[in-house]
Batch of 3 targets.
Target 1
Amino acid sequence: MLLVVVVGEWLGLFEQLTDKVPYAVGLVLVLAGGFPIFRNVARAAWRRKVTSHTLMTVGVTAALAVGEWPVAAVVVLFMHTANYAERFTSERARKAVRELAALAPTTARVERDGAETEIPVEQVRIGETVNVRPGEQIPVDGTVLAGAATVDQAAITGESMPVEAGPSTRVYAASFARLGSLRVAVTGVGADTTFGRVIALVEQAETHRAPVQRIADRFSAWYLPVVLAVAVLTFTLSGNVLATAAVLVVACSCSFAMATPVAVLASVGAAAQQGVLIKGGRYLETLATADVLLIDKTGTVTLGRPQITNVLALDGRSEDELLHLAASAERYSEHPLAQAVRAAATARGLAPGEPEDFEALPGRGVRARVDGTRIAVGGLALVPDAATHPGVRELTAQGKTLLAVTADEHLVGVLGAADTLRPEIPAALAELKALGLARVELLTGDHQATAAALADELGIPYRADLLPEDKITAVREYQAAGHKVVMVGDGVNDAPALAQADVGIAMGAAGSDIAIEAAHIAVMREDWTLVPQAVRIARRTARAIRINIGFTAGYNALGLSAAAFGILPMMLAAAAQSLPDLGILANSARLLRHPAPARIPVPAAGTKEAADADQAAPTRGTALPLPRP
């Protein structure tokens, strides 16, 4: 399209078009094609705002005033192209809200008149009792009256470990009862549930998020008065209408409309090739000046699944013997911690034995006979005295989830489990701080002890036990203080904060579709080095946009001076508009070639550097070499 415009102006094709097509027809085409843009410019002017489209509209008006309607049509075409590029990569918050709503259960089993009745969830009343069977979603917020189940509520609270729900436990709509069944007293239904508030918060966040002032708009706010002053001065001193129009046309060229979108398109395309999907140029511009980074824990900085990190063998048994017994008893359990136990045993080359008389104890653990011994694996409630052991107290202080292992009801060991840190996180956070995001804070729905252990390891502050509305409150606190906030998350419970943040970044490969839709940038690989890479892309894009605008302004200042003195005729002024376009293309094309993200060299095993690194690394217990999927 640029080539057609440049060649058309140089060969005089637009001049021939002006001669052959009646002016009235051209005027109607320009006004009809540019009406939506002109209307927005008028609305902005009513609010006393000047945008880059205001600048373009002045150029269109000047071209029409002297009969050069093809020039006006070209400027309108470029304004539409810029708008299309922005819409093409724009956010899809409404889709996120629809998908969120689709996740909610639609029916519930309610006890009425002594019988269980399945009814639409919106007909459930506060205070009624709802029954939840194994494997079902919990349809309401409530308190457990009876029963026991392993409840996965990571999507709502962000807790990495499943919750063992029993009487008096609070449960949330849209969480899953993986094992066991529950009778739940209803405390919230529909929009009054925690999940319902997540949906409302995503909608409100998009509505109330502060608008971003574009670089081109900020430039236009002071450049337009200068152009108008020169035009008025030209007419006052010379009385030459054509010279005055030439001033407006050459100064308000379409290159201003191109300065931002061409650079943005180049960066969006290059970023997508590296696995970073950017949903609009405004987010690139904002990311370039961001100074606060808020990060979710589960699935974002951690792997999002439990791993056995500590094996505390007692009663004279070895660690391998303890793991073998636990993995054998857990062989047929579907609990996430059972999977972690089996993975730990496999990593040590231990083959689980065949359990006999296997019995699942919802909310407590499992029992089975292994090699003639009655083995039980479960929470510390299996052996209340275990909590007093010094090693157990130490693991508890570290925020570990503990599994007691008993043989014939005698404690023989304790396994510590944790959601493990992604290996590239420390280097990525250090790089982000070097790039200007000086304040980094961990936001999590996990417990205080678990959050404290991870935050201490990363050397950052934290907030724990947060619900989705608490996370969005944290974002708004920083925004109210004048900060530009980047939020990184991956789950449904992060969606409101991702939408509210100035830039929300979703860890897409491991995260939920809802987080990807609510965020403004999606990282499509489980690689945190892409987050600082996105910041670098944003910084380069902002610099390229400033260069584009500066080059155009300088070039147009020369043309403006020549037109003001009558040296530059109207047609040459229109033709001269094409030259900055080529400069903008050349400068923006540099953004297509991004350097590879910086990598922190890993010392080879057995070297002095590796030994020094191990000595300097924080201790996290006995980490097992469990492979990532």
Note: The chain has a mean pLDDT of 78.
Target 2
Amino acid sequence: MTAATHSTLFPQVPETADAVLDGLDPEQREVALALTGPVCVLAGAGTGKTRAITHRIAYGVRSGRLQPASVLAVTFTNRAAGEMRGRLRQLGAGGVQARTFHSAALRQLQFFWPKAVGGDLPRLLERKIQLVADAAARCRIRLDRNELRDVTGEIEWAKVTQTVPADYPAVVAKAHRDAPRDPAEIGQIYAMYEQLKRDRSVIDFEDVLLLTVGILQDRHDIADQIRSQYQHFVVDEYQDVSPLQQRLLDLWLGDRDNLCVVGDASQTIYSFTGATPDHLLNFRTRHPGATVVKLVRDYRSTPQVVHLANGLLSQARGRAAEHRLELISQRDPGPDPVYTEYADEPTEAEGTARRIRDLIAAGVPAGEIAVLYRINAQSEVYEQALADAGVPYQLRGAERFFERQEVREAGIALRGAARAGGNDSLLDDAEDLPAQVRAVLSTKGWTSKPPAGSGAVRDRWESLAALVRLAEDFARARSGATLSDLVAEIDERAAAQHAPTVQGVTLASLHSAKGLEWDAVFLVGLTEGMMPITYAKTDEQVEEERRLLYVGVTRARLHLTLSWALSRSPGGRASRRPSRFLKGLRPGSGSLGTVASGGSGSFERGAAAGRRKPRGPVLCRVCGATLTEAGAMKLMRCEDCPSDMDEGLYERLRDWRSEQARELGQPAYCVFTDKTLMAIAERVPATGGELSSISGVGARKLDRFGDDVLAICAGGEGGAGVDES
């Protein structure tokens, strides 16, 4: 990592305004100094855009040219807004508003609603899917679960593109958009949804923007009041702005031009939500005198990863491709990307899990590894493979760090110890702040060594260990800091959702990985029909799929593995082809241009599959149908075929598993998954060979748990413990 994008967790607050500029590269410094007029920052992946714009704001505040309360910085996620607030605070620029579009609009709407409309603001609908279901029922239109989700997405798209129900069918046709159902039916459901909202006095998140826009358009006195408050605007991820958000931004600005936008057209991946890069690409047309700065020094990824990313975009077409940024890596060389072809999806997942286990054994923290896929439905087979390999993982979008029970309990304990001060006997032998924190958290489950395995106990320990690391970094950065100071820091971080790092391999869709980065990234399932996705039919849709893969590639700092499977299930026909986007990039796939040629990396054909005997198709033992789903293959039968499971045996196995999980400090699935236990209870193995033939019972688990399981199947109780040696 370089000084241009990375700093210590608790850097010293710069003493002067000029000190804020220290460590910026020439282009980042140019951004920071451009404090007036329209500014457009074209920032490639990993080029330190957040660093540039936060230092710009901080320099303006510290130099006295910007008043903190007059700046509004907006972005698209609470996480990004929290990170921005945290960085500004560390630069001595507290008091600047950094929010999402929705939270900024909601704050204004709540304040001005009594004045503009009167009465209380209608209740905000947290989730609209149930109301959409009610609307469909009123229209006598039946929607299954997937259709319900898709129609809800269509209503959201219509609202952010400012499309009213009556116009929806025509607008969809003009946009060549593939609607999940007959557009006339969706328009009908949309109209009924709006009617039900009015009847029930509720509003949704899109209404927050629409109503704020309406008030600012109709009430010039309120618009003037907001404009007198906010004089300077910064918009991050500007390529993701929707027409509705742009309209709100225009109303905030009025006739002023103190606007700084930051974005990268090559990372436009949310057009299905109404996002469009047109506002970014047209910025210089709308603002002819704009200052334009390009950030292309990539501090995140190695030259090998950057070479692949540049090669991927070199094949792109369309307007966004015409404005692509050629990244230049600032890091030392690293390993070449690895391309791996597998026989089938389960083998791909197992091979990925083995590689991850090897990386962790080599010293790569689990929290610095990610498996990224195109759709969430792909996660199950990787969850299963990682569980079977004993590798801890976390699904992206899980509970926020500061909302975890153990973190809340730790905060209460630290706050109590800080109030007690020298009167707390726990702190008698603690020589410094980290020792005090370790002493307090030891009462909540923290130990100097982590518990064995993964799961609930390990998750709790990791949360507490993250707080201990936070205390150690804080003490190094703030000489003489007290426990009260640390508690105040934790409270500020909780308010900003600026969480410390927790370990566990991340499983995430490519869309949800935007804005994140890891030391090692596995891009899986890269076949035609999945990347690009099968419903990407127009040239524009295919190009967005290419950009999505580009986002995935640029998440990797050091290790990058790209893989695909030739068939869905074991023994299936090897009819799949690797993604067209890899042509000219992976070794042996031909060349498509000077930048893409010379594809670097190693290509492995069936590398992991070669370790096992080829598998034939898995057939249902009840009806004989070919099985394709991971869970069905474990059971050796279709999910809806009759089960001959011994319910009593299944319950005994579950009780045994719970005891094993407690002793190992692992979640139950790391012993055996529910499906594996069901398969055991259905087949009642009598020998080790019969047990090992059940999917999910590998050699390691057979050696560790086999005797117990066979004893339970024979009518015994199983062993009382496990040997971790």
Note: Residues 297 and 527 are 31 Å apart (CA to CA).
Target 3
Amino acid sequence: MGVPAYATGAARDGGTADGYVDVQLLSITDLHGYLQGAPAGYSVIHGNGGKSYLVGGVAYMAAHLERLRDGRLNSIFFAPGDLFSGWEFDSCAFADEPTIEALNRMGLDFATAGNHEFDKSPGMMRLHMEKGVPFPVAGRDTSFPDSSGRVFHGADFPYYSANTTWTASGLNVLPPYNIEWVRTPGGGKLPVGFIHLTALGTESFPGSFQPGISTLDEIATANRYAAELKKVGVNAIVLSVHDGAVAGGDFNSGVDPSGPAFDLALRVSPDIDAIVAGHWHTRFNMMVPDPDGVPRPFVEAGCYGQVINEINLRLDPSTGEVIRQLTTSTNHPNSHDITPHRGLTDLTRFWAGQASERDRSGIGRQTGSFLRTRNAAGESTMGDLVADWALWAGRRPTDPANDANIHPNAPAELAVVAVAPSAGVAIIAGDLVYDAASDGVMTFGQAWRAVGFGDPVVAAWVSGQQIHDALEEQWTLTPTGELRFAPLAVSHNVRYSFDALGAPGDRVAPADVLIDGRRLDPARRYRLAAPSYTFLASDGYPALSGFQEPYRHQRDYESFIAFIRDRQSLSPRPTDRVTVKQPTAATADPGTVVDPVLPLLPDGTPMPRTEAALLTAARLMTTAPPGTGAFRPPC
């Protein structure tokens, strides 16, 4: 109804809580490093009666948290995932350390690992984000001085996940649950258990593609640990799950709910007293019946710092059990009608200034412009550069923090990159234009914005036939019969030609594909480098999805910058890797290239690239979870 959710009518009367232990649960989710504020299209939310709120920013969030915690004996602040792996440059350009500093300053007690916490590696999360261990190079890649002048020391809070395991051993990557102790008015203590779940399939998402980990069934895992907690005397249990649902547009109610987290909320053990969701970037607040028909809160607090959820549990002081009839839940907008917290304001200003400096810093030189402008064969200097980077990245030695690979690091023999895919988002976002005034200096910010949306380069075995078939998949017919061309850039050691008179699926002869000067052998295995997005068929080349023994390398943002630093000087090469047969014939048709356009948000602003990549991905669009209705892809 657009008002706080109550388990029963009795919960509306605060006096009914007399004699019980009051526990306040505060949570946020999917911050994604947006410290300054929510991006434009997400900065306004709507509540009861259509009232609108301007929301976002950790300075306002810290002020709201202080207000909500004031006078509370037992207040616990946590998050169900995707706090870092930031999409805002101010945080992402500094290895997400500014996000951790902000969360430390706000007093986050613990967090569930979301899929984006695995965007680099489990080792990066455990060793660097939690413990502050620097790598590879302190002061350049990680371990920057924070807003107080101290070098990054890691999170003051731990991460958990009950259903993320190492593929080889089956052991948990992170602890599955934690127990917090709350105080009673008489000076005693009672336990509250928190079980943590990471989105099913995290290891196969493009950003968090990690061959060495697996995610287990959410309901079975939650039930297992709920029973374990009960056995050790924990009678108040909360489930923090990085999976979500949709339930209408009012941030403080729920209408016609659907989605995997809602299915979980209906079916998971009745020993669980509250379910806090995330991952789907939606906002809702409701009570749903457990398998025994007893209401319990089911909530999600939006994304990008839009909302703070508050659940109030009343515990029996003698048993520690939750008196479900007295449970309440409210989603509070992180609104701007409050004086922002001074310390967090200073923090965001500090990192904005640091980001501006890093943006302008030089990392290499170029002797000419790298442009996306394509010739008739679909080739461009920018496409060639990015394909050469992918080959370089796919030949890199093992990073010590890259601990979720289970196959050998066999170096890549060739690389392909989609420059204008038929689905999804192109990994190339801009040109690298030669700046004569600086004698061709390439800056950190230019490189960062030109290539990538947060996915790793992967090297994997594919057959020559798969490579041939992927080249053929560049051409498709639209429903109206128009020939579409979605060109793949190839690395410098590859040459091929296509027949402009050929039908789709019959344009490239294997004998016309040369790798290191030798004809493509359809029966031979080749070690191919490409973005994980391409191997997972997200951008429309399903022939490559049958890859084998994948090895995950560095994320695109960081890797492309490392490539420029390694080469120091880059020069455009002639665009002669792809040629067209019979280009002047009367009926020749190389096909029409359509560059992907970022989807627009309701206010007309472009969607963030990482989110757009997931929303438009070909593979994800065909795998909607059952019962979700209109599919909302996971983020």
Note: The first helix runs from residue 58 to 69.
